[in-house]
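Why predict the complex rather than its parts? Because the way molecules touch one another can change local conformation, and only a joint prediction can capture that. The input here totals 830 residues.
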Amino acid sequence: MSSAIELIKLAKSAAGSLAQASTQQKNNALESIARLLPERANEIIAANQLDLQRAVSEGLAQGLQDRLKLDEKRLNALADAIRLVVGLPDPVGELVRGFTLPNGLKVSETRVPFGVIGAIYEARPNVTIDIASLALKSGNAIVLRGGSAAENTNRVLVRLLQDGLASAAIDSNVVQTVDEFGRDGANEMMNALGLIDVLIPRGGPGLIQSVVQNSKVPVIQTGDGVVHLFIDETARVDWAVAIALNSKVQRPSVCNALETLLVHEKAAATVMPAILDALTQAGVTIHGDEKVAASRSGVVPAEEADWHTEHYSLDISVKVVSSLDEALEHIAKYSTHHTESIVTENLANAERFLAEVDSAVVMVNASTRFTDGGEFGFGAEVGISTQKLHARGPMGLPELTSTKWVVRGTGQVRA
Amino acid sequence: MSSAIELIKLAKSAAGSLAQASTQQKNNALESIARLLPERANEIIAANQLDLQRAVSEGLAQGLQDRLKLDEKRLNALADAIRLVVGLPDPVGELVRGFTLPNGLKVSETRVPFGVIGAIYEARPNVTIDIASLALKSGNAIVLRGGSAAENTNRVLVRLLQDGLASAAIDSNVVQTVDEFGRDGANEMMNALGLIDVLIPRGGPGLIQSVVQNSKVPVIQTGDGVVHLFIDETARVDWAVAIALNSKVQRPSVCNALETLLVHEKAAATVMPAILDALTQAGVTIHGDEKVAASRSGVVPAEEADWHTEHYSLDISVKVVSSLDEALEHIAKYSTHHTESIVTENLANAERFLAEVDSAVVMVNASTRFTDGGEFGFGAEVGISTQKLHARGPMGLPELTSTKWVVRGTGQVRA
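Output of the joint prediction:
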């Protein structure tokens, strides 16, 4: 193909057949894809080696190299994840609402696929398989734009996806990659109003902001998490320590990990030392305000930028606040509206925090790590929406659908 | 204020208090606004006269002058419409889903206001009142940008809205107009990511496309309707005539009115003449393809542009097609995905039409005029969404809300 837009049009023209495919047909395609992943391990890993060699020669960061890598174990894990998607209920056709009007018209609202989903993401080939399998299960064609560092791997994976679809008699054009067109491919996707129904960016804040700022196609914004935990003056010490530690260190590289700890000044002497001891012992670097720095040694002075930062690492920003009001103001100013939690024994403070914090997920006395589709029982991870339109918080398969109103009459006209 | 962005920030900073306001408080504000409309009739009509005089001197089209005009009767109708909104259930706080996880975490998803809604619309001062009352009932602050032709009227109406809010002890900053900044005001709104949560354009296709193409803030696209009716070969003549006539002539100036009639060639001699006779008698001009033009006198030859046109008038485009497939292809090419209807007695054709037409509302044997929030029983008219994200079809108050996940724990951490 000579341009990305032609590939996008191919996906669009094939989308109708996928939208009408039965659950059985879609599951057959997913089973084929799961089977092909280990069968084609040699070919995939060979392509992946080319990408890895380039990554090494271009000096890609070690963490990014690791995310780029596929081996037999990871391929098997991807196949298992696809079989999990096979087991999830098909959202397409679900009746959302239905009623009969006084004039006898039967009105129903049912779930339908969006049509064509676009995904723009970084060089993580597992996302290619993850997001394609979720799109297919929800009846959506998918146009992929992965990071150029994974181009060889993604080319092989997209062919595999297309072969799996063809074996289940689904038009393989419903999966397309525009990787070969580089940045132009991403730009064409962001301008493809009327062809792509929704764009989902997955990756770091830079990628997401770029798509949100530049896309004419509607976007579901995911991921970005400057997550706060507020330790109220009445917080139980054991809960405060356990929740802060779990929120920060259980998996620091993900979006629901804790970034900023706010401590009520009346808890600064009673609760904070135990929390900071536990964090320090777990290898966390404390970036503290003046009061935190004055309270113990080894604290890195926090700068303004720290309050805006998603560390993705064993670093935490810590601030002492004079009141719940100050905590709420700080969160309103710096939060990315992902997840915020309060540790408290005071009912009024808990309810006020839950009501006034304007985030996708608000918690009382729980680890921020629970903001997760798997933990919520949704079965698969589409992403965590931090916007208010369409979907908010952990997204399951139903969030990859729209609805359609069906009206069945017997000649009714409007009076 | 020296800039639109300052007014938008004022609305944002006041939005939190409105989001927390009780249903009673919001209803009190709406009742005050309904009472003030007739009380201030003289002041409103005087301001409206200034706008009307300018409209006359600038040669504004007669239809637009009529839409611009407010008189005592229209003010009373606006007050009645607000009292209807008072009677609607408050969507804020509605429980969408709730469950307890195996670890004891109590998880619930409840409706919350978006925060700040932006409305960009043409010179129709009734929209100022309509959309503000719907926004207030759903707990949202609102930033208004009406057409400059209604600037004097809107200024008086916004002050009235603010006075009504203040009398119910709600921060009157939750209603703002950026009319004084002209086009700059609209541009600031479209760029106000993080301040305005959703933009709703209301007006003609030009306005809507401009907002969809240029806004960085998420948009709910409404209105635009190139609506199709397909007369299948098995259509009952009486239903076909009644539905075509009602869809086209009952109120031709609205988005759910019929624009294009597609007729199966086997119905061209049996059903079409009765339909076109009825339309002609009702004063409708027929823009027909060659087969239609050959079948009767008085047909204006249809041009390519007709198939794309929302006439908003007593004009209809008519085409004879050879099959359901050709009808579906025509609709896929020219529809704006608002409403399409089929008249048929054939079950398989009905089901195929309902399944394959990708529009917000699809109908069998019913007038397209039923695509309407009031007809669906939603009580108030926010607009009809023709996009797939967030809301599709007639929008009620719940579509002006987002949701928030609340997690209540007792010290749980993730294993």
